[in-house]
Design a protein that fits this description.
- The chain is mostly helical.
- The chain is about 75% helix and about 0% strand.
- The chain starts with a helix and ends with a helix.
- Mean pLDDT is about 75; it is low at about 1-25.
Amino acid sequence: MPFFSLWRGELKEYHPLAMAAPTVSLFYCLNIMSKLAIGGLSGFEYVAILAGECRAPARTIGRSVLIAAPIIALMFILGTSSVLAFIGNNEIDLIGPVPQTLRLGMHSFQIAGAIASVAILFMTVRSISSMSIHFTGSSRLPMVAGWDNLLPRWFSHLHPRFKTPVNSLLFVGTIVLVFALTSLIGAGVQEAFQLIDQAANVFYGTAYFAMFAIPLFGARALRQGAPLWLRIAAIAGMITCLLAIFFTVFPIIDVPSPLLFALKIIGVAVVANAIGVTIFLLGRRRGTES
């Protein structure tokens, strides 16, 4: 049995490494927990982008986080548990896990088709809403960074009529297209989807690691004003981000070459961050010259 099967917890009684089941199960659980934390509780970076469009953003957004965070965590935990319970040791369809679970769990009911249709409709609404917020954040983040001289001012250029960040949109759209096309090279649909998803977890984990590091390693005024509970929470967040980044190199489903999969993830992370550092340094240098 290959190591990948062991990592997924599919240990058989006859396997000589069956005694390692507790360790493998812990490894698998840590992987799932770190991905849930990054995927389910992400989005706080949009506060810096959209706070100016809210009334009393500190109070409004703070309350929304306290209310929504436990609900979102519960939804992700129960949803993932339902998928694993019905699919079991079968291959999970990463692109459509919910329709796959509905098909397996309700195939014996006559109203299964109607329920599945309603569920798919809700998923469509959810996808449209999710893409709307992602599009808003992805297009405005480079623009805001350009305003603060963290990126070249080119990113903050607005359309003369519609006042949209056209250069920022062009940059983000080009990057997304390149990633989408590159992920298909030498990979099937499931592996390509997994590559994009895992690479996104690397970027999210890196950004959130930097955010959690601010109360510990940021400016002196921020460090001195951070209470103990905030420091503890920041340390927990940094550890979670490191776990999420580490586990991205391990594929969730079977792939032809786990080593090649890991190298692709590492390569994407290194190249993307190198491009980001280069753009940042160019922006800083031009800001200094001006």
